[in-house]
Amino acid sequence: MNRIDRRTILRTLGLGAATMALPWTAFAKTQARIVIIGGGFGGASVARLLASLLPSAHITLVDANATYTACPFSNLVLGTDRLLSDQEFGYAGLESLGIKVLTALATDVDPIGKTVTLQSEETLSYDRLILSPGIDMRWNAIQGYDEAAAKQFPHAWKAGPQTTLLRNQLDALEDGEPVLMSVPTAPFRCPPGPYERASMIAHYLKTRKPRSKLIVLDGKDSFSKMALFQEAWAEHYPDHLEWRGASDDGTVSRVDTAGGSVETDFETFTAPVINIIPPQKAGLIADRAGVSDATGWCPIEPLAFESTLQPGIHVLGDATIAAPMPKSAFSANLQAKICALGVARLVSGLEPQSTVLANTCYSFTTPEEAISIAGVYSNKNNNLESISGAGGVSPMGADKAIRAAEAAQARSWFKTITTGAFG
Amino acid sequence: MAATTSDRVAIALACAGCHSPQSEAMVDLTDYGADPMRQALMRYRSETDGTTVMHRLARGYSDADIELLAAYFDVGAPTP
Ligand SMILES: Cc1cc2nc3c(=O)[nH]c(=O)nc-3n(C[C@H](O)[C@H](O)[C@H](O)COP(=O)(O)OP(=O)(O)OC[C@H]3O[C@@H](n4cnc5c(N)ncnc54)[C@H](O)[C@@H]3O)c2cc1C
Question: What separation in angstroms does the CA of A381 have from each of A229, A238, A353, A354?
Fold first, then answer.
């Protein structure tokens, strides 16, 4: 493979260097059929890199929707003038790389016969299957909270119509009426996400409905970047945000859509806007493929993210059990790229290799200020673990310039990660 | 065990989560070079009171890891 082709790959990765000498001859030959279910941060990213690494392979990406709506920054759609259309990405960029993109719901997987069934009853045969289906809700884990209830009490934990519904409800709120939010226990998608959302809703109330207040009912007593969020809340939203942890009766056990209320152990709360972030599990197709375990999530080996339950099937992103890596878009994108390299090696008769992984997640506390958490991980010895002494959160008590710098980094990150996935 | 190109590529994949030609607030690493990469990471790692994201991340990388990253970003290296 010549230098020009290598530059193409480097651009795909968003990185430049001239030392990219992968086992090209082996990689170039394979005609493997690779099917990817889920075209979000994990699925789109793995498709993109595989198309570069394996030019002769047949790569098919299946997603239920023709347009992907990204969750990161969707809290700013709720609380600021950001539009939902700023969250939307199509698949033309992937198609231009020769990836076959099917807009279809995958309904079944046969891991023995190595086929995927689509809702149309069409079947796809694969040599390697990669699942990045994200999450599904555990309906009725909170009594009464099912798909119908979500039309009245939106979760907005998958961005799209649910985000619009919650924003419209906030817009219809009368000044002085309360807003409620319920947050589950771990593990769930985006550990700091509920608290960024609380910040953005509090900002919305402070600027547009100043006599209203958000009450956050939490099933936990501590959360991601807690001290930093609480510092920001005390400064910016003392009158617009109240957080109640589990030991302060914060656990929501039941919702009543007819009464417009939620219940904890000792209290009933009524509000015109109720955002329920329910307990979650791996996307349903993971169950059909037999890659999820009793926890509802998918165990993987950390070198190529191959399922430990079904050989030949890889799982990425939120659906996996990959702690200490968080369920984030950054993690899904990196796991996808590591998986692509591992799959390219596997289908070319080579073993996957260990490396150093990382994650950075930014959260907005006001539209102009953000805080961050970072982690560094090793997947040596088949064990995904944090590298001690590394990572951690933004400093407490930092001045506005530091918070503004991290907000600018967050905006840059969004551009890079969405370009890295969708082109 | 000698490091392979795959090792160098794999460790650089995390950088590409933030650094790209689109990332105005983070330096674009395309054609960054081996020496600047080594120096920047060593400096971040040695500044024990540093609090930026890069300070927090650099603490997770060993000397050998930093050499791998420097080699990956070595724009002058011959193309095999
Ligand atoms: C409010 C909020 C804020 C967030 N902010 C951040 C942030 O700032 N930074 C960050 O790193 N992360 C953030 N996240 C987390 C991030 O959105 C997820 O971690 C990320 O989307 C995970 O990627 P994924 O590929 O696992 O799943 P997804 O991105 O959800 O993609 C899954 C895709 O699979 C498709 N799919 C599922 N099942 C099927 C099927 N059977 N057939 C066909 N298609 C199917 C779905 O349509 C979907 O497109 C946030 C999340 C939320 C909710």
Answer: 36, 48, 10, 8
Question: For residue B7, is it within any domain?
Answer: no
Distance A87 CA to ligand 1 centre (A): 12
How many domains does the structure of chain B reveal?
Answer: 1
Residue A359's alpha-carbon distances to A22, A49, A393, B60, in angstroms, are: 25, 19, 12, 11
Q: Model confidence over A89-105: pLDDT tens digits?
A: 999 999 999 999 999 99
Which of B23, B61, B72 comes nearest A416 by C-beta? B23
Least Cα distance to A216 among A258, A272, A276, A169 occurs for A276
Distance in angstroms (rounded) separating the CA atoms of residues A1 and A356: 27
Residue of A nearest to B7 (CA): A355
User: In whole angstroms, what is the distance from residue B71 CA to residue B77 CA?
Assistant: 8
Which residues neighbour A334 within 8 Å (Cβ) at sequence distance 6 or greater? A357, A358, A359, B13, B14, B17
* Helix, strand, coil percentages, rounded to 5, for chain B: 50, 0, 50
Residue B28 distance to chain A (closest CA, Å):
8
Count Cβ atoms within 10 A of the Cβ of residue A82 and give its class: 0-12 exposed, 13-18 middle, 19 or more buried: middle
From A35, A67, A69, A71, the mutation candidate for ligand 1 (largest count of ligand atoms within 8 A of CB) is A71
Q: Band of the pLDDT at B75, cuts 50, 70, 90?
A: confident
Write the single-letter amino acid at A347.
V
Which residue's CA is minimally distant from atom 4 of ligand 1? A72
Of residues A4, A48, A17, A334, the one with CA closest to residue B30: A17
Question: CA A34 to CA A264: how far, in whole Å?
Answer: 47
Enclosing domain of residue B73: 30-80
In a domain, B39, yes or no: yes
Residue A334 to residue B59, Cβ atoms within 8 A: no
User: How far is the C-alpha of A140 from the C-alpha of A121, rounded, in Å?
Assistant: 30
The predicted-structure confidence for A43-54, as pLDDT tens digits, reads as follows 999 999 999 889
Nearest to A88 by CA among A67, A73, A64, A63: A67
ipTM: 0.95
Q: Which domains are seen in chain A, by residue range? A: 3-137+283-353 (3.50.50.60), 149-276 (3.50.50.60)
At position A408, the amino acid (one-letter code) is A
Q: Which residues line ligand 1 (CB under 6 A)?
A: A 37-43, 62-65, 68, 71-72, 74-75, 105-106, 132-134, 157, 189-190, 193, 197, 283, 285, 317-319, 327-330, 332, 361-362
